[in-house]
Design brief:
Layout (H helix, E strand, L loop, with lengths): L1 H18 L10 E7 L2 H13 L5 E7 L21 H15 L3 E9 L2 E9 L4 E8 L5 H23 L6 E2 L12 H5 L4 E2 L2 H4 L2 E12 L8 E12 L2 E16 L3 E21 L2 E20 L10 E17 L8 E13 L3 E6 L2 E7 L3 E15 L1
Helix pairs in contact: 2-4
Length: 382
Amino acid sequence: MAPCRGWGLGILLAALTTSVPLQLWASDPLLVIVQTHSEVGDQLWERLGGHTSDIDVVLVQMPASGDGDRGEPNAGGANAGDSDAGSQMAHARRLADAGGARAVVWLRATEEPVGMVVYIADIASERLFTRQIRRHGPSAAAGSAMIEAAALVVRSALRALVAGAPIGVEVDAPVVVPESVPPTAVANQSVVVAPRDAVSRRGMHVALQWAGVFDRSTGRGHRGWSVRGGLDRRAWSLAMSMTASPAVILRDERSRIRLARYSGLVSVERRWRLTPWMAVTAGMGGGAFVYTRSTTVRDGALMAAPAARLPGGLLRPLVRGRLRVPGCRCLGLALEWSLSVDAAIGAPTLGYEIDGVFLLRKRLRLWQPRMAFGLYWRWPWR
């Protein structure tokens, strides 16, 4: 009876774990316009793709019109050096209306102190966030550090917007559009959308791994191939995996037992990106396993039990790590490893019944450590 109860519990756990995250596929990502006008703006744009990859936003690049100070991105409004909050907000509102965006990001160069100001406007709540970033020296490294600091500022602000938190201060933007920027200039600007793999938060993935489960069947446990496929939404994934482990042989003076292990799992996972090349994932899954057993007796006084399938329930907390393969970023190919523990509910116990007395041969673990290593491939869609 224990295996049957375990099988039912595994199905129930799988149903519960799959019903929770379905609401994550319902909402649309936040549309953000990033206005650029120079090499500095373009470098910020390139970095934002990696820094916002785990945030539910879609970035749209919009080159600025007009000339700014020192060739840097201007603030729209009247002049690149105009720091009036109302004019800045009016500029952001025009860009947002033209592109249907919820937020707008742009830069303004400064000479004292040397550096730039990052602007992030939340159009819906009429709030403007600004941050002064200094450039510490004329070297290329100092310029790169300034751009990296700007990208981190934008990332933090966009995370707050996605979470529903306010940013910056509330601003009353002028209703009249400044004459120096005709409305048609905004409508006629070219729009460059970030590459699909940088902005899409929906996608699919597959993984092929060599997996080992240490269930105490033998010293090495069961080893075999595992295949997984799933749907991705923002930093969440809903995945289904199947693992097949060939039979191992258990021998003693009385019998020879062939024991194979198969399992299926549905899991919900959350991803955290550590760097543009590395990510970790944690999740929980539920499903079922089945052991297949066949016995050959060596002792003529014993009778072999018929071949059988021994099912049970499976619960698996897991951690994965992924390292993107150098040169394969456009293909979404990565090396993946995973560590987990299988709670094998209803794991079988093997033994002999002699004269009404049960003699234990092998009891498989309830908690079965599991390791896997292989390839991961993801491709996005909009």
